[in-house]
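Re: that backbone. Tokens:
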């Protein structure tokens, strides 16, 4: 049996052990710090990842909502475009047909008893009339009354010829008229309305 005895001084032995313990302590501290930093980094990454996922879901929800709104706006825009086209067609038809209707109404109101029409040809902006009258004065009176109609822009000089008919008419006539468009009629009506208001206000 053999025994090993360390006969060195105690201080020397303790000083030799201290560096070894310091290295172990430092290594342990480094390991703990690394583990702590890794844990904090992991937790922070999880929090950031969860926040980013929530933000992504919110953004996706906003995008979906905006897409739905865009679709609705597109549908409304198409409806408004269709309405605008229908309005344009109706306005074009109104501009084309309403002056003719107004002119026919003016003919009915201004035609004197001694004059009757044989033919009335209407085209955009003008009308050609032909008929019979008892006298030339009846034709002149008819033209003068027709020129005062709102829808009539001008009345040409009547062309008359003498005829004999069983009805008693002695004059055949032809007459050309200018017809105003509906926009100018509406503009004149608004100006007259404004002038009327101004006159009342001045009083």
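Recovered sequence:
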């Amino acid at each position: 049996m053999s025994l090993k005895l360390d006969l060195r001084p105690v201080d020397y032995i303790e000083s030799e052990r201290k560096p070894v313990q310091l290295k172990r302590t430092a290594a342990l501290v480094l390991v703990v710090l690394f583990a702590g930093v890794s844990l904090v980094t992991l937790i922070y990454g999880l929090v950031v990842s969860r926040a980013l996922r929530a933000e992504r879901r919110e953004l996706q929800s906003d995008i979906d909502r905006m897409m739905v709104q865009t679709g609705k706006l597109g549908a409304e825009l198409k409806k408004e475009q269709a309405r605008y086209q229908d309005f344009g067609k109706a306005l074009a038809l109104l501009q084309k047909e309403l002056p003719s209707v107004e002119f026919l109404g003016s003919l009915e109101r201004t035609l004197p008893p001694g004059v009757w029409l044989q033919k009335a040809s209407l085209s955009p902006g003008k009308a050609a009339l032909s008929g019979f009258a008892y006298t030339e004065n009846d034709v002149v009176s008819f033209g003068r009354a027709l020129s005062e109609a709102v829808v009539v822009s001008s009345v040409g000089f009547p062309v008359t010829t003498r005829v004999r008919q069983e009805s008693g008419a002695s004059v055949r006539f032809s007459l050309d008229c200018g017809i105003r468009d509906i926009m100018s009629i509406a503009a004149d009506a608004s100006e007259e309305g404004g002038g009327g208001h101004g006159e009342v206000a001045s009083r």
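Residues 25 and 31 are 10 Å apart (CA to CA). The radius of gyration is 52 Å.
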